[in-house]
Design brief:
- The chain is an alpha+beta fold.
- It is 33% helix and 23% strand.
- The protein folds into two domains: 4-124, no CATH class; 135-242, Sandwich (Jelly Rolls).
- It contains seven helices and nine strands.
- Strands 1, 2, 3, 4, 5, 6, 7, 8 and 9 form a nine-stranded antiparallel beta sheet that branches.
- A hairpin with a 2-residue loop joins strand 5 (182-196) and strand 6.
- The radius of gyration is 23 Å and the shape is elongated.
- It starts with a helix and ends in a 12-residue tail after the last strand.
- The model has no long low-confidence stretch (mean pLDDT 93).
- The chain binds zinc ion.
Length: 246
């Protein structure tokens, strides 16, 4: 096993490794779930697919995409035992030791951190970013509601703020939540009911409401026609920070 900095020097001089970038779905996944959760999943992947003395399908066990860890493994030559031996000088044929697993995960994490920074830098150098379509996000609640995230962690890899259009049917009720973000809502059509510990507010078309982060709130659209509204969250919405009632 060589020094991790030396390994990164070797990787940087490889045209093949250098091609790998974290973007699109895999970057969005990392932004949505956060580094700690993703690294936890990485630990499981390494245990199952790389650590055994004779891993199954060794050399072909790591998919090219679909998870940030897989992309990071190809970029850091921790994708199979052959690459691990060649670049990192960790010999094949034995089960990885705890130290070796820690080393592999550190290389993966270091690469993911660098890609997150890179993504931010790329965005900052652009004068304007055209968002050509939203991502449809899975909605909570008792009836199908359409959430179109235009700006946010998933669709534009924006952490600071999210902007989504909601189309919610009559009779829809969402579980209560105590989100970490402030939520600013403009109702375009119909009526949105906002219930807090202070009472009930019916917000009609052409009106707006601000729900303060850290306070319990519940959204619903009891009217027969439901509602359409724009919701802005600061910082951006994430499944980990909404804290829905269970
Ligand atoms: Zn490999």
């Amino acid at each position: 096993m060589i020094d991790i900095e030396r390994a990164f020097h070797r990787l940087a001089s490889s045209a093949f490794r250098w091609k790998f970038r974290l973007h699109g779905r895999e970057l969005a996944y990392l932004e949505t779930w956060g580094m700690d959760r993703v690294m936890e999943q990485g630990g499981k992947f390494i245990d199952e697919r790389l650590a055994p003395a004779e891993p199954r399908n060794d050399g072909r066990q790591t998919p090219w995409g679909n998870h940030p860890i897989f992309v990071a493994q190809h970029a850091t030559a921790t994708c199979c035992r052959g690459c691990l031996e060649k670049v990192h000088e960790i010999p094949k044929g034995h089960e990885l030791t705890e130290d070796e697993k820690v080393y592999v995960l550190q290389a993966i994490r270091q690469w993911l951190e660098s890609q997150k920074r890179e993504g931010r830098r790329r965005k900052r150098f652009m004068a304007a970013i055209h968002i050509s379509r939203p991502t449809i996000v899975q909605a909570a609640g008792n009836k199908p509601k359409v959430i179109e995230e235009f700006i946010g962690r998933v669709n534009s890899q924006t952490d600071d703020v999210s902007v989504a259009r909601m189309k919610s049917p009559g009779g829809w009720v969402e579980p209560g939540q105590m989100p970490e973000f402030d939520e600013y809502t403009i109702v375009l059509r119909g009526t949105l009911r906002v219930t807090t510990r202070d009472g009930v507010i019916d917000v009609h078309a052409g009106q707006a409401v601000i729900a303060t982060g850290g306070e319990w709130v519940q959204y619903s659209t009891p009217g027969p026609d439901g509602a359409e509204y724009i919701a802005v969250c600061v910082p951006a919405f994430s499944p980990g920070s909404v804290h829905r009632d269970s």
